Amino acid sequence: MIIHAQQPIVEVHDLTVSYARKPVLWGVDFTLPSGCIAGIVGPNGAGKSTLLKTIMGLIPPSSGYIKLFDRPVDEVRSRVSYVPQRESVDWDFPVSVLDVVLMGRYGKVGLLRNTGARDQAIARDCLDKVGMAAFAKRQISQLSGGQQQRVFLARALAQESDIYFMDEPFAGVDAATEQAIIGLLREMASAGKTIIVVHHDLQSARTYFDWIILLNMRLVAAGPTDQAFTDETIQQAYGGRLNLLSQVGDVMEKRAFPSREN
Ligand SMILES: Nc1ncnc2c1ncn2[C@@H]1O[C@H](COP(=O)(O)OP(=O)(O)OP(=O)(O)O)[C@@H](O)[C@H]1O
């Protein structure tokens, strides 16, 4: 089931993506409007990260094409930000929190020019928005996982882009940080930004996202959450795994609360 956006700013057309000639995404087609928070949801290995990286032009598709703002991705790169999966980043790199956020400004000032007072002010303001202003001088390696995640979000904010791609921004963060991040994403969406998030948790997906792209190597459903994210489409995407997950949950609960048996 696909419900298309009326004035799309992200268009994915019949996209097939392969690694070493083996397709991992087949014929994926969807569009997104501006000012929405979209969730890419699906089981492990469904191709969520691959889809994100392909839309951003980091992986060439085997077939199909993508348009952002009605243009090829290469022409609008400065309007796009990426928050990678936390595990994919070398956090031992010796650099301060403020410098990491200032890197977000390179796209605006150019790699060979120094960032100025205005960039510093923007970077500090972005750190403030994610509640990390007090850590500006700290080495990035000396932060907790959730704090590092916030700093990467600040770096993306400092880019002042129009589309933000985020690969599991809630992985390893506590509930309060998760709420703070989703609040910030809502503010950004209200300001007309489009945010595309790879996400794992089915329950929160329903409340976090305006738009859902439900994937399992093929597109299962895409559209406004209330229409695309139904028991039927979730069952289609996850199949038998949902039953398995609930059985595992039951077993764990019985172990934790043996007296509840019967
Ligand atoms: N660089 C790569 N080379 C070969 N195969 C890859 C590569 N990256 C991913 N794959 C395979 O492509 C498929 C999709 O992977 P991808 O990481 O996009 O899935 P995902 O939905 O993001 O998974 P997860 O929820 O586990 O993070 C998987 O079968 C994976 O093993």
Automatic annotation (TrEMBL):
CDD domains: ABC_Metallic_Cations. Keywords: ATP-binding, Nucleotide-binding, Transport. GO terms for molecular function: ATP binding; ATP hydrolysis activity. It holds the Pfam family ABC_tran. InterPro entries: AAA+_ATPase (IPR003593), ABC_transporter-like_ATP-bd (IPR003439), ABC_transporter-like_CS (IPR017871), Metal_Ion_Import_ABC (IPR050153), P-loop_NTPase (IPR027417). Belongs to the ABC transporter superfamily. This is Manganese transport system ATP-binding protein MntB. It comes from Parapedobacter pyrenivorans.
